[in-house]
Amino acid sequence: MTEVEFVVVEPDNRNLRELIARLDEELLARYPHETIYVVDFDDPKVKEMTFVVAYLHGTAVACGGLRPLDYMSLNSPSMELKRFYVDSGCRKLGIATRMLLFLEEKAIAAGYGEIRLETGIKQPEAIGLYVKHGYRPIELFGPYVGDPDSLCYGKILKQG
């Protein structure tokens, strides 16, 4: 198994920002700019988010974030998976699966009962990952309502 270290980082972490910039480049190649839902790092609420960077042999190769949602679903607080990305040269090594499970554990430990996410219709690899790990299609929510390029998924987390 590939040796990967997952580190919770602050929003201003240089490695996190570089990985997110690479993610944005990939998304811009697939979608119009207005359908890319970035994280506003100038928003004070970004401090409420949990960001993780995955390091393979000391090199930052993946990132992901969790953002608390302002509403309850099924009487349980929810988080949104954001900015989930694995460098193209490190895909198919199991890093995405392990990072997703790591983030789910972080959400459970923080008392959240559900993770929701948005992905695009032109990202079959991402859709496959989420479905494989129990995420099911849900109605578009929040800023994604009405976006024909968006698909939303959710997963109820098992506590304890």
Assess the beta-strand content as a share of residues: 35-45%
Distance between termini? 26 Å
Question: What is the residue-mean pLDDT, rounded to a whole number?
Answer: 91
* Rg: 15 Å
Element order: H for helix, E for strand: EHEEEHEHEE
Low-confidence stretches: none
| Strands, total number | 7
Query: Structural class of the helix and strand makeup?
Result: alpha+beta
Tally of helical runs: 3
Lateral arrangement of strands in the main beta sheet:
1-2-3-4-5-7-6
Q: Which descriptor suits the 3D outline?
A: globular
Main sheet overview: 7 strands, mixed
Relative helix content: 25-40%
Structural account:
With 160 residues, the chain is an alpha+beta fold. 26% of the residues lie in helices and 35% in strands. The radius of gyration is 15 Å and the shape is globular. It starts with a strand and ends with a strand.
What is the element layout, followed by pairings?
Elements lengths: L3 E6 L4 H17 L19 E7 L2 E15 L2 E11 L8 H15 L4 E7 L3 H9 L3 E3 L11 E7 L4
Parallel strand pairs: 4-5
Antiparallel strand pairs: 1-2, 2-3, 3-4, 5-7, 6-7
